[in-house]
Specification:
The protein is mostly helical and 476 residues long. It has 22 helices and 4 strands. It has 2 domains: 298 residues, no CATH class; 130 residues, no CATH class. It has a 4-stranded mixed β-sheet. The mean pLDDT is 92.
């Protein structure tokens, strides 16, 4: 296949996979959309509103105005294709254009046929794929200053970029790596300090992050982590087989160590969400690219071991296609028929859309909003500004979003109590959207005594499923 034909096919497949999600928002992408919308309203993260992720995450969404729908999915597609181009460039430089095409294809396949919440949203672990690949490429080319700077850029997406920096060290140039990394990090710190946001950045991203890591959920264990990893490797078995074949034959020390360092980063704090495994995709795509090129080379055609491995790889590719492919078709068919999605995995998003319509039907210019629970998609749909610094319940309950549907144990009860005191003294939002109380009655907003007087000032406006929309009684 020609180079133009290859990239046309790959880009088209990626685009179709993303467009099928044109009427869905997934957890995490909605969070950064909501934050970016606040920046468009003239607010600064950390200083003016709570944002517990490094700044470049929301900056990505600013590139297309933090819009949902086709703008979001086109941006998603361009990002995935850009990552594939980086994988192609790296593998081609290591070996040849053939390996580059296999590496790009492996990465595209992995970013399509796996759990949508781990693949579709461009959240920190997924966004880091691009600077991760670029940093390692420049480290391999013995350009440590550029590699360090790119690792620094990744660090402004997620602290897990420290594992990217550690991987770059494998190729030497420690002093220049450190200079590039520190230079980017220092520039970001100076910008935050000049905008009076550095202290808040430390509190929201780092203090909250350390507490989150330190308070592992009840099901966090080595056994659970191993099970999660085995499940991920199972769905990526084709790439793993090809990578193992290459490692067994060539024993590439630095590339293997890169994979192992990345593996350490996937389970930081015994948190094994599927999206965390995206840190493994850059080294796995590069290693499997060469393995696939070798296994499917014409001069390997009659080797018995190669034939067996080819069959195993083909079979391994079928499993994720069968498991995850139908959901793309289901969503696309719903869109073509102009009907709502009935897929259970997007039910909460559909409920949030309905709640957003209730808000929009009563909203006036300059109205503000607050979310009880983790429903930033409501903000992404309504595009309303926050009234004050706190805009969702996480810092007020102290219970992170990844567990607040199942527990009421805060990571820091004292800190959450102090945040609630600040919250009730802040400007009151016009709308309150409660998407948590029904799902976890232990965190019912009405059960917090220090919010009782505050909440009595709101009247119910409507319900969307199990989500309740309130409005200031005095604002009616």
């Amino acid at each position: 296949m020609s180079r133009a034909g290859f990239w046309t096919c790959l880009s088209g497949i990626v685009l179709l996979s993303r467009l099928s999600h044109i009427n869905v928002l997934w957890a995490d992408e909605d969070y950064h959309l909501a934050a970016a919308i606040q920046v468009l309203h003239g607010k600064l993260p950390y200083r003016d509103f709570w944002y517990d992720k490094p700044p470049l995450n929301l900056a990505f969404y600013l590139l297309f105005g933090a819009h949902t729908g086709i703008a979001l999915r086109l941006a998603d597609s361009l990002f995935v294709v850009a990552c594939c181009v980086l994988a192609y460039r790296f593998a081609s430089a290591l070996w040849s254009r053939r390996e580059g095409m296999f590496a790009a294809s492996a990465l595209a396949f992995s970013l399509i046929f796996y759990m949508p919440p781990a693949n579709i949203p461009l959240e920190p672990d997924t966004l880091m794929i691009a600077p991760h690949l670029a940093a390692m490429y420049f480290a391999w080319r013995r350009k440590p200053l550029a590699a360090g700077a790119l690792a620094g850029i990744a660090f402004l997406l997620t602290p897990k970029a420290l594992f990217v920096l550690a991987s770059c060290v494998l190729f030497g140039g420690l002093a220049w790596l450190a200079l590039g990394f520190v230079g980017v990090s220092l520039a970001a710190a100076v910008w935050l300090a000049s905008n009076h946001a550095l202290a808040s950045y430390w509190e929201q991203v780092w203090r909250w992050g350390f507490q989150y890591i330190g308070a592992s959920p009840s099901n966090a264990s080595l056994t659970a982590g191993i099970a999660s990893l085995l499940g991920w490797f199972g769905f990526h078995a084709a790439l793993c087989i090809a990578a193992a074949w290459y490692i067994f034959r060539e024993k590439p020390p630095r590339l293997l160590e890169w994979f192992l360092i990345s593996l350490l980063g996937t389970g930081l704090g015994f948190h094994f969400a599927p999206r965390y495994m995206n840190q493994l995709l850059p080294p796995l795509a590069i290693l499997s690219g060469c393995g696939l090129a070798q296994l499917f080379a014409s001069n390997q055609r009659h080797a018995p071991a190669v034939i067996v491995l080819r069959v195993l790889i083909a079979g391994s590719l079928i499993v994720p296609i069968v498991r995850f492919g139908p959901s793309y078709i289901e969503l696309a068919m719903d869109d073509l028929a102009r009907r709502g999605h009935s897929w259970r995995d997007v039910a909460m998003d559909q409920e949030s859309r309905a709640a957003a319509r209730i808000v929009e039907s009563a909203a006036r210019p300059d109205d503000t909003i607050f979310i009880w629970g983790y429903r930033p998609d409501v903000i992404a749909y309504t595009r309303l500004p926050f009234a004050g610094k706190f805009w969702d319940s996480q810092p007020l309950t102290g219970v992170p979003a990844d567990r607040h549907l199942s527990t009421d144990v805060p990571v820091s009860a004292e800190w959450a109590r102090a945040n609630r005191l600040d919250f009730v003294r802040s400007p009151m939002p016009v709308f309150v959207v409660d998407g948590l109380s029904h799902y976890n009655p232990s965190l019912d907003i009405h059960r917090f005594p220090d919010l009782a007087d505050w909440m009595r000032q709101y009247c119910e406006l409507g319900k969307a499923g199990e989500t309740t929309v309130y409005r200031l009684c005095s604002d009616r």
